[in-house]
Specification:
This protein is an alpha+beta fold. Helix content is about 25%, strand content about 20%. Among the domains are: about 30 residues; about 90 residues. The termini are far apart.
Amino acid sequence: MSLAPSPAPLSPRPPGTDVPATCEVPQFAPIRVRGGRHRLRRLVRHRQRAMAAGLAVTAAALLAAGSGAPAEPPPGDRARGHPVADRPPGRPAAARVTAPVRIADAATVRLLRPGDRVDVIAAEEAATGGEAHVVARGARVTEVPEPLDGTSGHTVDGGALVVLSVPRATAARLVGASATARLAVTLC
């Protein structure tokens, strides 16, 4: 049995000789971003404007996001009758306006409450043919104002006023119909 010769011992090197030599970093001119300091100063100077702009963007984002849930009227103001069907998908919503309408029968107006849905019917005078046609379908009653003169009821001959929320085009038809016909309402 022969023993294998042992390898030669490694010669220890002095510490730090296995690290490469250091070199100096060459001198160079500092790099400056053009206008950076000026922009920062201007932003600090006009921080009120910047805050107002930030708040406006935040408000717009919150408004655009919305809650997604339609606002519910208080339990006492719920709409009576059947709800009007929503608009078909892909069709833009018409701008809604409030339109004051004088209804010929004041007693009918006393039955209405805010939130009710009504159809408005224009009945032409009997002398001109006496036709009746629907001017507005599913209009939401927003207000039933009290008479200004302080009487207990509405006038019999002049009818009574009711404020409806309708699309802009329907409001124009209501105004035109009220000039030539007597208006009546039916609850939906």
